[in-house]
Amino acid sequence: MNPPHDDDQFRSRLNLSGNKDRMVLVVALGILSAVSPMATDMYLASMPRMGEFFATPASVVQLTLTSYMIGMAVGQFLLGPISDILGRHRLMVAGNAVFLLSSVAIALAPSIEVVLALRVLQGVSGAAGVVIARAAVSDMASGRQAAKLFSLLATISSLAPVLAPLVGGVIATVAPWQTVFWALTLFGALMLACSVFVVPETLPRHLRHRGGLKAVASNSWSVLSTPSFMAYALAFGFTFGTLFSYISASSFVVQNVLGYSALAYSVIFAVNAGGMILGAWPTPAWWTAWSRP
């Protein structure tokens, strides 16, 4: 193994010291991290039309969200540890390329069953951007600098849940449901360009884990068998499940039951998303001091 100072030299080659270069890199990572809300929230307004196109009930169309999230969960669970062994860059590029191709295939899909299968693949490939982008930040920085980069990354990514439904609502108003996935194809091309031309390899060979897939399985089991981790994971999972129950049913309730247009639904959804983002922000220090008895 190379001496520790080689890691510092490797980080210095990533141009983290330059504000402009660092901002371009963080924006690129933010785009990669935004893939999940883009792939879920953008087509919500088009879900009733998708059901009409395939002549299938709402419950089956809602499974397109479920299948994507299953793929995203499996992808994050596997691709993160695998990138620790193989490196970040090639896995990120491959995942973004598959996401792009799966988006094209969904737009051309002949049946809802094909859409469901492709959404699983789209979720697995989209996970490459989500999990590897965060791992890349950990590779590039530590301590206070890493906290600042994660904060910037979160700020950029938080725009997606607000913008995606608005864009999707406009598309659903003027175009068929397939157009949303053509838009996701363009987003996939943007992610691919970011991973190829902007984001470098951030994990040098001498810092990669050894042991292959056997080590991945062993480490994964070690994590899953930790009671404290599983308690937090299950609590988060049930909370997330409640959120997605709302997301999967909201388009049918607001449009088909309450009678709102696709564009009006997208505005309602974006306002709710904005409220959740604001509610998750930490309490300002001045408010804490003012409200203290």
Summarize the structure.
Helices cover 80% and strands 0% of the residues. With 293 residues, it is mostly helical. The N terminus and C terminus are likely disordered.
Short descriptors:
293 residues, mainly alpha, Growth Hormone, Chain: A, 80% helix
Tell me about this structure.
The chain is 80% helix and 0% strand. The protein has 293 residues and is mainly α. Helix 2 (19-33) packs across helix 8 (143-157) and helix 3 runs parallel beside helix 9 (160-174). The longest helix has 31 residues, at 227-257. The termini are far apart. The model is unreliable at 1-10 and 285-291 (pLDDT under 50).
H/E topology pattern? HHHHHHHHHHHHHH
- Could you tell me the mean pLDDT? 81
Please identify, by name, the CATH architecture.
Up-down Bundle
Number of extended strands: 0
Q: How much of the polypeptide forms β-strand, as a percent range?
A: under 5%
Quote the CATH topology.
Growth Hormone, Chain: A
Terminal Cα span: 56 Å
CATH superfamily: MFS general substrate transporter like domains
What structural class should be given to the helix and strand makeup?
mainly alpha
Q: What percent of residues adopt helix (DSSP H or I)? A: over 70%
